[in-house]
């Protein structure tokens, strides 16, 4: 059961692995991750994938996400093997968000918790638009790098089809479809008012429930989301090998919890 790099041909197997763990996911996100990240997997002798993990490299650090082991292959050390492989491939600072189920493994591997990330879903109230749409994502890359602390141009220039971008004088936000949910992220802004305006305007353009992932570094934005949406799962924000760069006070939501 060797570890290999998965390709676009493995997206259906990734979807089946997600379903096996009860994760709701779409081929849109898996296809994107295979394109912009490294997806490591272990083939199951009885077919499909026994496990997988995603490593997204940036120039200053890397993010690990989507750590999955098929139920029938639990407690065989596959999760630890995949994580150690991803950590070695990252060769530097690594960030992730951990479920309660996965956190003990990550702590044994040397990850340290720095806060929480809470998911909120539902429908946001509409309001007159105060931000503007744009198709020029390249114009946002320098600002994003200064706030995010790393170059994520490869991710931002590979947004899923139908993704929408809105800008304001002090920030920008993206909305993209993942299954039956519209993910609002990333939202990067200099202040809370800009972040909430971007989220509101992005949500007004969709007919599906929205999702916001908000860390404990953004208590005011979390309170705004909690007053309008339903609180879902909470995960632990963790890092390995040092502090993650970036200005957390201006990072209101990630692209996804799998990629940062």
From TrEMBL:
Residues 1-133 form the N-acetyltransferase domain. It holds the Pfam family Acetyltransf_7. One of its GO terms (molecular function) is acyltransferase activity, transferring groups other than amino-acyl groups. It comes from the Bacteria. Coiled coil: none annotated. This is Acetyltransferase. The lineage of its organism: Bacteria, Bacillati, Actinomycetota, Actinomycetes, Micromonosporales.
């Amino acid at each position: 059961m060797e570890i290999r790099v998965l390709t676009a041909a493995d997206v259906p197997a990734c979807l089946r692995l997600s379903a096996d763990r009860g994760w709701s996911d779409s081929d849109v996100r898996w296809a994107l991750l295979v394109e912009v990240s490294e997806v490591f997997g272990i083939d199951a002798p009885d077919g499909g994938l026994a496990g997988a993990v995603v490593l997204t490299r940036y120039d200053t650090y890397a993010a690990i996400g989507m750590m999955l082991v098929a139920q029938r292959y639990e407690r065989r050390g596959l999760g630890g093997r995949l994580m150690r492989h991803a950590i070695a491939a990252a060769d530097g600072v690594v960030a992730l968000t951990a479920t309660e189920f996965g956190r003990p493994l990550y702590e044994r591997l040397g990850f340290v918790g720095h806060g929480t990330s809470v998911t909120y879903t539902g429908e946001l109230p509409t309001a007159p638009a105060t931000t503007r749409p744009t198709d020029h994502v390249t114009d946002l890359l320098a600002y994003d790098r200064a706030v995010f602390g790393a170059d994520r141009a490869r991710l931002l220039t590979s947004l899923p089809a139908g993704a929408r971008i809105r800008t304001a004088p002090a920030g920008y936000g993206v909305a993209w479809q993942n299954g039956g949910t519209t993910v609002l992220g990333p939202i990067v802004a200099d202040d809370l008012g800009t972040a909430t305006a971007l989220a509101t305007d992005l949500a007004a353009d969709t007919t599906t429930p929205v999702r916001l992932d908000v860390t404990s570094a953004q208590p005011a934005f979390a309170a705004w989301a909690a007053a309008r949406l339903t609180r879902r799962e909470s995960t632990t924000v963790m890092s390995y090998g040092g502090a993650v760069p970036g200005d957390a006070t201006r990072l209101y939501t990630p692209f996804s919890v799998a990629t940062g």
